[in-house]
Amino acid sequence: MAQERDGGSRFSLAGARRVGAVGLIAASVAFSGGLAQAQSYVFNNIVVEGNDRIEPATIANFAKVAKGSAISGAGLNDAYQRLNNSGLFSSVELVPSGGTLIIKVVENPTINVVDFEGNARLKDEALAAVVKSQARRVYSTAQIEADAAAITKAYADAGRQAARVEPRVIDRGDNRVDVVFEIREGKITEVERLSFTGNRSYSDRRLRQVLASKQAGFLRAIIQRDSYNADRIEFDKQLLTDFYRERGFIDFQVLSVAQEYARDREGFFLTYSVREGLSYKINSVRVVSEYDGVDAAEYEKAIRIRSGVTYSPTAIDTTITRMENIALKQGLNFLAVEPRITRNPETQTLDVTFALTKGPRVFVERIDIEGNATTLDKVIRRQFRTVEGDPFNPREIRQAAERIRALDFFGTADVNARQGSASDQVIVDVNVDEKPTGSLNFGATYSVSDGVGLLIGLSESNFLGRGQYVSFNLSGGVDNKSSGFTFIEPAFLDRDLKFSWKVWYNTSENQNSYYSTKRYGTEIGLEFPISEYGRLGVHYTGSSDKLYNVSASSSALLQAEEALGPQVTSAIGYNYSYDTRIGGLDPNRGFLFRFGQDFAGLGGDITSVSTTALASYQVKAFREEVTLRAEIEGGALVTSGGDSLLINRFTGNGKIRGFEPNGIGPRDVTAVNQDAVGGNYFAVARLEAEFPLGLPEEYGLTGGLFADVGSVWGLDNTAGTGTIDDKMHLRSSVGFSLFWTTPIGPLRFNFSKALDKQSYDKTQNFDLTISTKF
């Protein structure tokens, strides 16, 4: 027996279980004699004894013994079981006494308080949310044991497999008890090593990048994904399977996962045994129609898969979606697209046939949503392209589930279909578990040119449960200060139409220049899809920009622009983007193209057309160990009725590595300060390769090589003296990068060397960028 504490006696759960067993024996003895002489009883009266808090009628209702009706001995045993299983009593006796049934009970005590001792890593509030035992509720031995198991699982999920929980019950008298969960947390159980067997096509290092779990490294005190979690293993197995299937390994299997404790019992060694199989490519793709009156030729236009490409389930699924969209436009609600795949093992190719068939006539009866306490139903419903009464499409339901999870509003989101009120009806159940979506961030930034800066940010991605994004950011450094407010409605008018509103106020002082700027303004925009990967946005921008504090030793051009005072810009513009990096058919390749123009002159002081464009391509090569990137970017500013101003010209900041901000471009070489004054045009090409350094993957360190070439040039006014060099001089640089992915943010170290430059350019051989959030 445990020692007394706080003046109350303590008893164990085992003792409580013995009380229940004694009650069962007593009940058996009480009516076993009657069973020997009669097979049934008739009770005209029911008497309850021993109850204190629970009403006699409630106890009789649990027993369900009808007055005046015959009941057998088995029926009395059932009544006993119902009373005992109610969790309200520590003992129960049924005593037949002639026409009276006496029910003797000893009530379970009431919980006075639930407490936790020994916990440091998980706070009381977190543990209270796990257990179901609560103050002022009836004590239940079974529930206490279940709560102890739930606390143990919570610690296991947090990576503490060695945690132990022992429930204790303290008698406080007056049929009240305190429940105390005594916890020994133990140390974090980490994944000491992740290894693979059976993999020939991809290295262990590449496969570790696929898994959500990570090996424990020298940052084990900070990183969380190296904590062992048994539930994460199943998720990792699915990640591995998806990885291989997307690369043509249609027979891939995870055969087993060996989990071995380290000798010190504080870590696990996980070994994934896999069978890769062969990687298949597409040989031929065709469409056949088995639906009367449907022409397959129209659906062949939806095929983007070409012979010779690696097989990908995503490519097949995307093609089916395109064909189903064609069917909907033709009013064929129940057309089903069935992919039929024929293997050619000798050539490691596949023949894919998309068969157009007539599917079953099934409709969506209703969509039920549960678990969303904050998020409005309509935010979840608009992720469905299907509404009540529409034909049921299993593929669309799966895609809706993915869209709901992509909102990132929920910890879990399960979408399932079940039989409705008729054989041709289904009910779609959506069960979500909300998670916090707001954040208050305090952080720091650093760069060689700007120094240290501080920032504070407040954001909410599900504002008032409407799915809207709201943020406010304030940052400041030695020379620069900026603030901004952003509001985004992703489903304006309940359509796939994104509305955005931005406000900003920025100041800069002497950032490698002898002048200051002050900028504030607002932008309102709309963005919508125009193709599978393309989006078009339109916007209006109104701003006021001021150049001031120009040094007397600076260029005459800048002094003349300062004399103009604040310049108001009123512009409308558009931007188009085409992005296959997310959702593209090839997981190893991605292409991004952006093009935009702003037309200023709808009022204000500036009349100009500003055009910018960017094309970027990324591919993983050498068995996906090396990432290759290529970018081309350019811009042009054309003015009308006046000269371009510094506040609107291109400076080339960050465009070419190896040069300081304002380090390239047109410059007044005759001025004492030799100011960079910006240019009307810029163009740059960047090449980069990122590769492993042979270090353990959990360190998050990779290397890179880069080469940049480009220029900033062109002015409307060279101060009338021709002393400003605004010609197109190519600059180039090469360098080495060290990428470090840390739990506190991504770091990048650039070591560069300028090759082609002008005598007045300002170079920068090293740059470090830090972005952290706490």
Shape: globular
Strand content: 35-45%
Domain unit count: 6
- CATH names the topology of the largest domain as Porin
Mean pLDDT: 86
The main sheet comes to: 16 strands, antiparallel, barrel
Poorly predicted regions: 1-38, 220-224
Q: Kindly name the structural category.
A: alpha+beta
What does this structure look like?
Strand 5 and strand 6 (100-107) form a beta hairpin. The chain has 6 domains: 10-107, membrane protein fhac (Ubiquitin-like (UB roll), Roll), CATH 3.10.20.310; 110-184, Roll (Ubiquitin-like (UB roll)); 190-275, membrane protein fhac (Ubiquitin-like (UB roll)); 281-358, Ubiquitin-like (UB roll), CATH 3.10.20.310; 363-434, Ubiquitin-like (UB roll) (Roll); 510-773, Beta Barrel (Porin). It has a 16-stranded antiparallel barrel with strand order 19-20-21-22-23-24-25-26-27-28-29-31-32-34-35-36. Strands 1-8-9-7 form a 4-stranded mixed beta sheet. It has a 3-stranded mixed beta sheet with strand order 3-6-5. The model is unreliable at 1-38 and 220-224 (pLDDT under 50). It has 774 residues and is an alpha+beta fold. It contains 12 helices and 36 strands. It starts with 9 loop residues before the first strand and ends with a strand.
